[in-house]
């Protein structure tokens, strides 16, 4: 049973345009959400997070939006750069912010073309 | 200087063998984890250790045993390897304060192939 779903396995965008990566979850107890970025042959690296008490968090070119009623979050990258090409994992936690039991999605492979 | 390092990067072995994967972190974190990424690309937590105590053990076969000689190391021992154990195993660490949202730092992964 997938509690965190990333239904798009891949996404291709042009450099300079906006990339929008989507994530849905089923467990209403999740209260903290994170995005990780992974390059080939490397481990995932933390990108941005959002608490369930917020509906938006921004960090430079990256913005995460949370819609609790729809159990949906999205990651916006603007403007997209070729170096953003990677696999992006959505993750959720129900430990009140502790990252001891993150539930990950399957990831979305983003390709940003020059 | 790599923050979380795990060895080996690749491990190819026969069914039934016993193998270990080592992990070290130099971040001063007090919690370390092992995650498994299976063929379906899901990243699932296997274990975490906080101050030498096991605090999470998801439904992992007892053929898998984590060993933490000190706060900076969490090794993964696997006995009687099976074909289904083939996966990428990631070590991670974090500082778990209990109230703040500390991010996980991952190692680069160990690709285990059981033949």
Write a structural description.
The complex is a heterodimer of chains A (114) and B (115). Chain A has 114 residues and is mainly beta. Chain A has no helices and 11 strands. With 115 residues, chain B is mostly beta strands. Helix content of chain B is 0%, strand content 55%. Chain B has no helices and 11 strands. In chain B, the strands form 2 sheets. In chain B, strands 2, 4, 5, 6, 9, 10 and 11 form a 7-stranded mixed sheet that branches. A 4-stranded antiparallel sheet of chain B has the order 1-3-8-7, with no helix packed on it. The mean pLDDT of chain B is 88. The interface between A and B is medium-sized, with 22 and 28 residues.
Notable traits:
heterodimer; A: 114 residues; mainly beta; five-stranded antiparallel beta sheet; 11 strands; B: 115 residues; 55% strand; globular
Cα radius of gyration of chain B in angstroms: 14 Å
Strand content of chain A: over 45%
What string, H for helix and E for strand, traces the elements of chain A in order?
A: EEEEEEEEEEE
Structural class, judged by helices and strands of chain B? mainly beta
Helix content of chain B: under 10%
Query: Quick one: biggest sheet of chain A?
Result: 6 strands, mixed
Number of strands of chain A: 11
> How far apart are the first and last residues' alpha carbons of chain A, in Å?
38 Å
Q: Characterize the quaternary organization of these chains.
A: heterodimer
Mean pLDDT of chain B: 88
In the predicted model, the low-confidence regions of chain B spanning at least 5 consecutive residues are none
Form type of chain B:
globular
What's the number of helices of chain B? 0
C-alpha geometry of chain A: globular
Structural class by secondary-structure content of chain A:
mainly beta
* Secondary structure: helix percent of chain A: under 10%
Q: Name the helix and strand elements of chain B from N-terminus to C-terminus, one letter apiece.
A: EEEEEEEEEEE
Query: So how many helices of chain A?
Result: 0
- How far do the termini of chain B sit from each other? 34 Å
